[in-house]
Amino acid sequence: MSEDNGLKDKVKGGMNKMKGEAKDKAGDMANKSDLKAEGKKDKAKGSLQKGVGKTKDKLSDD
């Protein structure tokens, strides 16, 4: 197993969630549904990535 034990996934997930939040808000302000949808996709990707990181952490603890 890798030494990071899911840390990379959690960090990347957090970054994707932040990027998604920014796109979502920008899409709201500019009234652009495509940008808003892209933001929601990035937030979902970030949440999934963070979950993978947490799972890796739990598996490495065993």
TrEMBL record:
<dbReference type="InterPro" id="IPR036629">
    <property type="entry name" value="YjbJ_sf"/>
</dbReference>
<dbReference type="InterPro" id="IPR008462">
    <property type="entry name" value="CsbD"/>
</dbReference>
<feature type="compositionally biased region" description="Basic and acidic residues">
    <location>
        <begin position="1"/>
        <end position="45"/>
    </location>
</feature>
<feature type="domain" description="CsbD-like">
    <location>
        <begin position="9"/>
        <end position="60"/>
    </location>
</feature>
<protein>
    <submittedName>
        <fullName>CsbD family protein</fullName>
    </submittedName>
</protein>
<dbReference type="Pfam" id="PF05532">
    <property type="entry name" value="CsbD"/>
</dbReference>
<feature type="region of interest" description="Disordered">
    <location>
        <begin position="1"/>
        <end position="62"/>
    </location>
</feature>
<comment type="similarity">
    <text>Belongs to the UPF0337 (CsbD) family.</text>
</comment>
